[in-house]
Amino acid sequence: MTPLPDRRTVLRTGAGAAAAVALGGVLAGDTSGRGPGPGGVLRLATGEPTAFYAAFGRLLAAEIERAHPRLSCRVRTTAGSTANIELLRDGRADLALVLTDTARAARGDGLFPRPVPVRALGRLYETYLQFAVRADSPVRTVSGLAGHKVSLGAVGSGAALLGERILNAAGLSPGTDVPVLHLRLAEAADALRDGSIEGLLVAGGVPLPTLTDLDAGPGLRFLPLAGLLPRLGGHEGLAASGLEEVPFPQGAYRGAGGVATIGVSNLLVCRPGLAPAVADAVTRLLVLRATALVPAHAVGAQFLDVRTLIGTGSVPLHPGAVSAYRSLHG
Predict the structure, then answer these.
(1) Structural domain spans, the chain
(2) Taking a C-beta distance cutoff of 8 angstroms, is the pair 127, 267 a contact?
């Protein structure tokens, strides 16, 4: 992943079967080509209210309702990826934003009591793992966090899972070598500011407004993470986890430019039973309304072109998404 020259350089664009299923409300698909299109209630699980997922989710919901007035898209803020998979599993969400790494784990590696079947509508973008300490901190590497308290993201977030793996990769035992808290971003920012934690980890676009505020005072330093990548891939390798080395863009935060961190790809996923016509309709918006789906503050989020939208790794595409991509791009 490479930094974008402009935050509006996004998905490049080129130019279903009917189904009706219950999705909290009645979500119906129209395939006549002449009808009013899909309708009902569509529930979208995002992330913390002040973070990237929620901002993207609000934009997507607005585009869905603009293009399909009979669809009501309700955005739900959550702790993040793990919580969103649980909402899909329990039938309390229809669409969800998740890290590729978490979606892969949902297939069955002990993260959940039983494998959770999910389908992808697209690989949307890549964000950054941002492990920040105060600029006046003596800590300059992850291994240097030994004995220091950190927040690894809220319980239910994908960052929380990756954070423990990052500590392990650095030879540290979470909870033993490093006292670990799981705070929401706003709480973690307050704790870093007042010195009650040494560092915080978050996954998101850059710059994140909350971190920008911290960078202005007391100031931040970002720990390099890319050197730990070889120990994070697991038996399936890094590609399956959606992880890769990426430098912070110049100007994202004071002094962060060029620091080698980890890029994490993000998916829009759904329950397998989502109506094909609805999956088709939402997928088309990912391609055709791409420029309207970039949160204003996401300078460093790498939005991917249509060739990569379909690259969802070990998470299969929903048949409705396949239909949309074939129709648009052959």
Answers:
(1) 20-126+267-329, 128-265
(2) no
Radius of gyration of the chain (CA): 20
Question: What would the two tokens of residue 188 be?
Answer: 């973690």
The rounded distance, in Å, linking the Cα atoms of 209 and 49 is 12
Residue 62 region by backbone torsions, left for phi larger than 0, else alpha for psi between -120 and 50, else beta: alpha
- Superfamily assignment of 20-126+267-329 in CATH? Periplasmic binding protein-like II (3.40.190.10)
Quick check: 86 and 57 in contact, CB under 8 A?
no
pLDDT digits 0-9 by tens, 174-221 = 999 999 999 999 999 999 999 999 999 998 888 888 999 999 999 999
SS3 per-residue string spanning the chain: CCCCCCCCCCCCCCCCCCCEEEECEEEECCCCCCCCCCEEEEEEECCCCCCHHHHHHHHHHHHHHHHCCCEEEEEECCCCHHHHHHHHHCCCCCEEEEEHHHHHHCCCCCCCCCCCCCEEEEEEEEEEEEEEEECCCCCCCHHHHCCCCEECCCCCCHHHHHHHHHHHHCCCCECCCECEECCCHHHHHHHHHHCCCCEEEEEECCCCHHHHHHHHCCCEEECCCHHHHHHCCCCCCHHHHCEEEEECCCCCCCCCCCCEEEEEEEEEEECCCCCHHHHHHHHHHHHHCHHHHCCCCCCCCEECCHHHHCCCCCCCECHHHHHHHHHHHC
pTM of the model: 0.81
Identify which of 66, 25, 1 has the alpha carbon closest to the alpha carbon of residue 275.
Answer: 25
The amino acid at 313: G
- For tokens 């110049």, the residue is 250
Q: Judge whether 20-126+267-329 and 128-265 match in fold.
A: yes
Q: Which residues pair with 36 in a beta bridge?
A: none
Residue range 128-265 forms a domain whose CATH class is alpha beta
- pLDDT on residue 5: 33
Cα(247)–Cα(68) distance, rounded to whole angstroms?
39
